Amino acid sequence: MSDSAKNLLLGFLAAVVLIGGPLLWWNASQPKQGDPVVPKAEDAKREEALREKIRTLSEAARSLEQKANWCEAAGAWQKVHDAVKDAGNPDFLALDRLAAERNKAACEEQCNPKNLVKQVELKPGPKQQPQKIEANELIRFYPAGKTIRSLAITNMDGKASNTDWGLKGEASFVHFLEALIETKVVANDGQRVKFIVKLRKVTQTLVVSKETLELALPQAPILEQAWADAALWRLNPGVAKLRLLWEGANLVDPNLKKTLTGIAEHLKRVGIAGGHPQDVQMLQQLDKTSGLEVEAEYVNGIGIVRLEVIGGRPGNLFDEQALKTLGDHLAPLMDFHLFPNANKAVGEKWRVRAQDILRAAPIDFNAEIDGFVELERKPDDAKDRAGIAILGVVDGKLQAQGRAEDAIRRGELKVRGGELEFSMQDLFVRRGELTFDVRSTYASRDHLLFRAENLRNLRIRSRYEAQIAK
After folding, report:
1. In this structure, what CATH number is given to the domain that contains residue 54?
2. What residues have CB less than 8 Å from 126, skipping those under 6 apart?
3. What sign does the dihedral 339-341-347-350 (CA atoms) show?
4. 69 vs 122, residue with greater confidence
5. Are residues 374 and 448 in the same domain?
6. Average pLDDT across the chain, whole number
7. Tens digits of per-residue pLDDT, 401-429?
8. Residue 223 sits in the same domain as residue 372
9. 45 and 147 housed in the same domain
10. By three-state DSSP, how is residue 81 classified?
């Protein structure tokens, strides 16, 4: 693809995601064998008229959002929801109804903000406190100015049912959480460390199909492309809906072919492989933390004691409880804890707290995470990975628990295995993969699997990449 074509593609994608993240719905133009006969002309005409009505109402609501008229926008999204209801809540408008519900809630939160603060003081209890590090080692690992850019993708795939999806009965799904983060050391005296953490992009994506979706984590480096993509994202709340068809079909708009190709490439990059299923829906939204910039103050042996919002929000104000929960997910000293002092013998094993790996394996930014992971140093691979310590992930258990008003139930993951690559020269984890067995599931109200039922055949895998910013 030429540079000009890439620019056109990125420009269109930017337009699609301006209000939070696209909700994309693909339907093949040709029916599958055994599918119902094409609807009668009058039914098709009625369906298209309803779609056009909902599109018009949604565009009016989005226009109010873009003007930051949050209270009016909430009312406009209610009109979309009511119009779908008045139409009898047909399956082909199920995602419009879901988009209207989420958009309304996001606008109401902006219209009537509550418990917004610039900073929070944290008091980690004994169980939340990390091990104390020798001052000289803390400075060696985290000198002032050191900046780590990282990308983590955690995928869950399986089968479930959810009336919000507009698909009858059970469907296959892939859910993935992407977290693109920059962590910079501002100051470090061996006892207190100040970091500036930029959550460049935190997104959830849910892909659903009646056909089986295959999941294969990408092997090629993906961090640099993700960093370039992050420039496309804006922070306005909401979910947009765009009707598309699979590549090769007769597109509603022929000019969307390049966009469709870009979307397919994105899905492949984050791990969704296979052909082009006939009936696929995709819901993608920004997490409330996306775009946030915070200063974190870390006290040796205690943990993060203060978080202050310094960018990414009007007036540098953010939800108090969400800011407190975020402190458990930043894991600014992850690299040290995963390979203490960068000095373990081959075959030696050690345990780390679950909170200390969350930058490499994010689960849910709105949940409290507890548990442990056990590591073992493996023999070096001097031929292909010189200067890299190989760390095997051999055991562990993670629990996820939301706040009382959000929690469905406590979720539990059992570590199946994995591998981390640690740079002995730059003292950081540059790459990693982890796999988990799902013992029980959890989803907060902000999670895209909220209200999903009969989940089964679940697998979770995380992929992590990082680099030192020059």
Report:
1. 1.20.58
2. none
3. negative
4. 122
5. yes
6. 76
7. 765 454 445 678 899 999 999 999 999 99
8. yes
9. no
10. helix
By the 8 A CB rule, do 450 and 443 touch? yes
If DSSP codes are grouped into helix, strand and coil, which group holds residue 385?
coil
What pLDDT sits at residue 213? 65
104 and 122 in one domain? no
The CA angle 179-205-280, to the nearest 5 degrees, is 155
Residue 234: strand, helix, or coil: coil
Q: What does pTM read for this prediction?
A: 0.75
Same domain, 97 and 132: no
Query: Are 141 and 34 found together in one domain?
Result: no
- Domain closes at, from 95, 111, 127: 111
Q: Are 185 and 145 spatial neighbours (Cβ–Cβ below 8 Å)?
A: yes
Residue type present at position 447: H
The verdict on 97 and 137 lying in the same domain is no
Treating both helix axes as pointing N-terminal to C-terminal, what angle do 94-111 and 41-66 enclose, rounded to 10 degrees? 20
Q: In 218-277, which residue ranges form alpha helices assigned H by DSSP?
A: 223-229, 257-270
In the structure encoding, which two tokens stand for residue 423, read together? Answer: 């740079």
In sequence order, which residues have a C-beta less than 8 Å from that of residue 438 and are 6 or more positions away?
156, 158, 411, 412, 413, 414, 458, 459, 460
The CA radius of gyration of the chain, in Å to the nearest whole number, is 23
Torsional sign, CA 263, 454, 177, 423: negative
Backbone angles phi, psi at 450, to 5 degrees: -60, 135
Per DSSP (E only), the strands in 162-317 are 171-188, 192-209, 214-215, 240-244, 272-273, 279-286, 293-299, 303-311
> Distance between CA atoms of 358 and 334, rounded to whole angstroms?
8
Is 93 found in the same domain as 221?
no
Of 78, 111, 144, the residue at which a domain comes to its end is 111
Longest dimension (CA), the chain: 77
Q: What angle do CA 149, 154, 160 make, to 5 degrees?
A: 160
Which structural domain, as residue segments, surrounds residue 90? Answer: 3-20+28-111
Beta strands in 382-427 (DSSP E): 388-402, 411-423
